[in-house]
Amino acid sequence: MDSIIVRGGSELHGEIPIAGAKNACLTLMPATLLSDEPLTLTNAPRLSDIRTMTELLQSLGAEVTSLQSGQVLAMSSHDLNNHTADYDIVRKMRASILVLGPMLARDGHAVVSLPGGCAIGARPVDLHLRALEALGAELELKDGYVHAKAPGGLKGGTFEFPLVSVGATENALMAATLAKGTTVLKNAAREPEIVDLARCLQKMGAQIEGEGSGTITIQGVDRLHGATHPVVTDRIELGTYMLAPAIAGGSVECLGGRMELVAAFAEKLDAAGVSVEETDRGLKVTRRNGRVDAVDVVTEPFPGFPTDLQAQMMALMCTAAGTSVLEEKIFENRFMHAPELMRMGAQIDVHGGTATVTGVERLKGAPVMATDLRASVSLILAGLAAEGETVVSRVYHLDRGYERVEEKLGACGAHIERVKET
Question: Active-site residue numbers?
Answer without folding.
Answer: 118
